[in-house]
């Protein structure tokens, strides 16, 4: 809007808002305010980030795309928690042995410098943060632990021993930064050289202070009470304030180490002997296989994946003395099957023995919950195409 005004466009705010109203869907428009002040309706678009990056690069040629994206991430991370993308549970990408972090750092350096291509699309890799508790942060950064005098990771002021613990007082101490950390200007803070210095990252900002071991954190009841009061005054905040009051609930979940600590405890239980670390990979493979089977069992064989009850048949003569429920559709995580009269597209399947069946009915035994598929078996099938390879490698056939 400021740029439009500078080139002589009148009512820049109204113009941009009208454009966004037409371009953005209502669902995406509920995420954050475009201006934050003076605009009643919020706007957002998934491509807005790329537009901002391109515009800023034109105006400020000295900034790199990474620097611009880092600032955009800081701006976007203040969205209300309910509009943020749901994060997945922790999972293993790789397990490294022998030299401490050596393989991990070499691989990460390569990914940061060379964006991976998958398939026909280039992905930019960046490090959001290293989420660790206090002992793990000290171990990774090779610095004094939280009980040392020069332990503070954000300022240069040494602590004082008070009431059986080290306390850092004051609010005006010089701040640590990436340059002073890498040069180890505060010798009392470092106990060695961190292997992470080989990575092109800020070794201060990229290590958020998580709240797992912070004894001064608010209890759950106090957090709810503060949130309740903030919510109660929300309607009383005047127009001059850029932001309304927000709740404290889930505010620090994106820098919490609780999920990772819990998952690490599960991984440790998979190794019965420290001399056999390969057990971790084998147990994880078994767990993934078992979870797939459990998901299929939960969805189909308990009846949760059966849809569209009907009574049109057919039912084979040998099964007419058994009480069945009839369905038109099976829905699972990995596939959908329907009867031929409902949808010709999903009415075919491969079964054991590598033959094709056209589905005519789906039956569930009311007493045993067993699922039966009634269909016509094809005596032969041929590849849909033979070049550049036979289609039967991926199941399509005639």
UniProtKB/TrEMBL annotation:
PANTHER family: AGAP000105-PA, PROTEIN, PUTATIVE-RELATED. This is Uncharacterized protein. It comes from Ignelater luminosus (Cucubano). The lineage of its organism: Eukaryota, Metazoa, Ecdysozoa, Arthropoda, Hexapoda.
